[in-house]
Write a structure and sequence with these properties.
The protein has 465 residues and is α/β, with parallel strands linked by helices. The chain contains twelve helices and 16 strands. Bound molecules: calcium ion.
């Protein structure tokens, strides 16, 4: 009798233990986002001048998305799409936000659920590092949007050399781009950083992973490199002495700093034995600016427009042991898919309708179809749009000219196809998609001067934060 009781007790504990182990098997999530990095600016997309050996490991450990897109051609809206898994036009985040911390209308609407908020429901510990750009007002800051920790800055860009971070807090900012000069925030506290910004972000990323090795975590590592201003330290510049063009040299050095950071992070995952339980995404938020040193490869155009160079970005992911290595995935996918993929693995239900797709069944070949029937882009202020359906792309550009292209045979969008019936059909698809969108909900960068006229107290009596 006694032995039977013990057996029952042991079985009971075994069941509990198994369930516990399964419950904790939720994969860790790391999103490494770079800023304005061109499609051609990674080794895995063929670059031999600018070396990214560590970023390339993500690709060889997993998948290169040759047709991986961001949801917009500049920073702010692209990030709003990425972090919500929804086309940002659904909720009017269709402009780069102005830096106006007193204005509680400028930021990611609170009805929207961030990936961090979704993952909180699944017991994750979350950290955002680097560039935020989703609202500087108190109600929109990272710690209010599902992140347990934050290290970085709230604005759309930043200086890289610590000695240039001379403003103590938001109350000392007196113009849109002045926010680039603020000291960094650790959670709610301004700190004295001593390292080159990119190195500091990498350091914090490694520390966060080390500290949270025993729990499911989400790390949103949003480097502002290689976004302007072009600033790099000798450590990285010395690798590119042979590049004559100064912008290209500095830009390459900035990407090299990111690459070193990615290396440290990947090494840490290996060292801690959590490689197979961690999904790592790498992508850029939009295309590069070639006049500022970027290289979009054979793609036409760059940041700020809906030609491929503006929206097709370097994009790769790894999930060792689950997603087969050394894949090139060619069906079009979009940054919005990250949210959908992650919540499916974390087994949490998103609050809102999401536009992305869980990519895992496509990457394990369980599903051989294309993840998306169509992908869409809207640049509200420029009356420009694009949609991709299969190999075809319809694009109304910023000067009002509409062209139909076959991306498979004409990746550089050089030859407009003459098929007015098809163009009309695709335009109807765009109209149907756009019918569910709303107009921009706040003033953007273009309204900077107008906003100052309307709000002469924009920079006055701002909180010391
Ligand atoms: Ca950007």
């Amino acid at each position: 009798m006694k032995i039977k009781n013990i057996t029952i007790l042991v079985s009971f504990f075994l069941i509990v233990l198994t369930q516990y182990a399964q419950g904790t098997k939720k994969p860790n999530i790391i999103i490494i986002l770079t800023d304005d990095q061109g499609y051609g600016d990674v080794g895995f997309n063929g670059n031999k001048q600018l070396l990214t050996p560590n970023i390339d490991k993500i690709a060889s450990n997993g998948v290169v998305f040759t047709n991986g897109y961001s949801s917009y051609a500049v920073c702010g809206p692209s990030r709003a799409g990425l972090i919500t898994g929804r086309y940002q036009d659904r909720f009017g985040y269709s402009r780069n936000p102005l830096f106006a911390p007193k204005d509680a209308t400028i930021g990611l609407p609170l009805e929207e659920e961030t990936l961090a908020e979704a993952l909180k429901k699944g017991g994750y510990t979350n950290m955002a590092i680097g560039k935020w750009h989703l609202g500087a007002n108190a109600i929109y800051r990272p710690l209010k949007r599902g992140f347990d920790e934050f290290f970085g800055f709230l604005s759309g860009g930043h200086k890289y050399f610590p000695e240039q971070l001379v403003l103590n807090d938001l109350s000392e900012v007196t113009s849109q781009f002045d926010a680039y000069n603020t000291k960094l925030l650790r959670n709610d506290t301004r700190i004295e950083e001593k390292e080159y910004l990119t190195d500091a972000f990498s350091r914090e990323a490694v520390n966060f992973v080390e500290k949270n090795v025993d729990k499911p975590f989400f790390l949103y590592l949003a480097y502002n490199a290689p976004h302007a201003p072009l600033q790099a330290t000798e450590k990285y510049l010395s690798r590119y002495k042979h590049i004559e063009n100064k912008n290209r040299r500095t830009y390459s050095a900035m990407v090299s700093a990111v690459d070193d950071g990615v290396g440290l992070l990947l090494d840490k995952l290996k060292e801690l034995g959590i490689e197979e339980n961690t999904i790592v995404f790498f992508l850029s938020d939009n295309g590069g600016v070639e006049s500022k040193g970027a290289y979009n490869g054979v793609l036409r155009g760059g940041k700020g427009a809906l030609f491929e160079g503006g929206i097709r970005v370097p994009f790769a992911m790894q999930w060792k042991g689950t997603v087969p290595a050394n894949q090139k995935y060619e069906h079009p996918i979009i940054a919005l898919d990250i949210f959908a993929t992650v919540v499916a693995q974390a087994k949490v239900s998103p609050k809102n309708d999401i536009d992305g797709k869980n990519l895992i069944p496509f990457l394990t070949k369980e599903n051989k179809e294309a993840p998306h029937e169509e992908l869409f882009w809207r640049m509200y202020d420029k009356n420009s749009f694009a949609l991709i359906k299969g190999d075809l792309k319809l694009h109304k550009n910023v000067i009002g000219k509409t062209g139909l292209y076959n991306l498979k045979s004409d990746i550089s969008e050089k030859k407009m196809l003459k098929d007015s019936i098809l163009s009309i059909k695709l335009r109807e698809l765009y109209k149907a998609w756009n019918a569910k969108n709303i107009a921009p909900i706040f003033d953007g960068l273009l309204e900077d001067k107008d906003y100052n006229t309307k709000h002469p107290d924009r920079y006055k009596n701002v909180e010391k934060y």
